[in-house]
Amino acid sequence: MNTALWKKTFGEAKWLLFTLALGIFLFAFLRIWLVSQVEMSRFAEIIGQLWSDLEKFSLVPFSHLLTYPGRIAVFYNEPMVVLMISIWAIGRGSDVVSGEIGRGTMEMVLSQPVSRLQVMFTQAVVGVVGIAVLCTAAWMGTAAGIGTFKAREAPPPPAIRVPGFGFEIPLPFLAPADPEPIRTPLSEKVSPSALTPATLNLAALGFFLLAMTTMLSSFDRYRWRTIGIAVTIWVIMSIAKVVGMAVESAWWLQYLSFFTPYSPEWAVYVGVRNPEDIWALGWLTGTGDRQFLSPLSNILILLGLGTACYTIAATVFCRRDLPAPL
Amino acid sequence: MLVETKGLTKRYGDFLALNDVSFGVEKGEIFGLLGPNGAGKTTLLRCLLGFLHPSAGTATVAGLDCYRESVSVHRMLAYLPGDARLFRRLSGKATLKFFAQMRKGGDFARAMDYADRLELDTRRRVALMSTGMRQKLALAATLSADVPLMILDEPTSNLDPTMRSTVGKLVMEARKLGRTVLFSSHVMSEVEDVCDRVVIMRRGQVVHTQVMHDLRRRHLIHAELKGPLPEAPEELNGQLEIRNTSAGHVTIETPGELAPLLGWLATLPLAEVRVEPVGLQALYDFYHHDTATPT
Fold first, then answer.
1. I need a surface site. Which of A119, A259, A283, B232 has the fewest CB within 10 A?
2. How high is the pLDDT of residue A168?
């Protein structure tokens, strides 16, 4: 362990990490506030009108989207969240080899008594810790929002209780024309722990993106080119997933995309439906009797692909020639 | 031998950057690498640092393979690249601290002392330093390492003449401390001043090895002839070579001491006598410009 190397690597990453962590926390907090502002009945109306078009893109049933865990879980699929994790992963991953070579600092570091593997390991640990910090910030942002805000709900219509029978008869014709909404703490509707599977899924996606970019970086000597290639792959994979879901004849495309194992709403749905299924391996039945990989399987796929990328990256970096800086 | 290469070859496709390079550097020696751009000096140094995988041959430092045992080799050496690129966000002081902490026995105070001697403002951030200042900073970090071998790739390339002289002194000090210095340069005078031995490289090959002590004894005597040149006495055989007697001009080269020749020279019908050391430049020109040169 080389303390100076750790300090240097953390020092280079700290401002990006701090900014993204703050951003993702605030975004999560704001997103929960937005959820609390829209009454469930209104939300159901909006989604209900679009559902026939949206259904093929959803791994969870309409009924789940009309629950607070379902609505909040959508946060993890917000482009902003995926983008922030991707910025960190691609930013740090591209710096590992091609960034240092491009700046000409790699030879100053490697002329010291440290191995190439040690340099890559240090960068990997900082990258993974950053992913953990960002995912924790995302989870804490949602947890803080859940603990802070109250859900806005339409009051139940007036009812009379039938003496001796223990049931109520609703009297909607007695309801006021513009009823004052009632406020219920979100914490009574959803527990932050229900979002843990989605957070882990986000972390697995971040780990994979970090490892994939590190692998690309290990072959290269220009950071801009590494970033360009990584972003291009990112866009192609996004398109493959969307087209695979939208076009029935091209269903197989989604299985070529690393975004397919990233399904945080599904992970939350499985956890709400049957918590034991979260830790199951293999396929589970979802909406319309369709089969989807279990949340744990999705996480393991991303972690496995990431580990493979890191193995390739380490092998390439340890064997390659280090060009002189230009 | 502290540093040794045997048949070291580095090939990039059809291009031979290094071709069968073999040489050795003794402990405590200051060893120079000379050659124009593209001669293979930096490739050779990068092979010694284990940055490049040799296509053939071996490079060792203290018997350790430079590529396979690079971490152990790096414990024994400090390296200054030709164009030192440092961490732009750090100050000079933080940079020196970083390098002092990177190896066991690193000494930050010593590094600061070297920075002072190089008249460097270490409070400034690297990003705001000139090329020369960055070079001084890298030099301070390199020279302060307590290691037996220093590899300096054109250490004075961005420095002014005063600082070049200071660097020369620091290199001599390193030798007094028992260190071995291997350095490449384009500046003949500084190589001549500090090196014990040099190799001249051309197109990836070592074309000449020169012991500087021998070179310093060699002189060229140029003069105008005022009469016929007599044969040299027998006792001076092997101590001089008469090379050019055309158009009333003579050039005499002395491969050894000059003193034994002075008496004989005084008896010759010569005018406008000029005596000059052979010098590294003449040797270099012979290999790189195909000019006439001493044997």
1. A283
2. 81
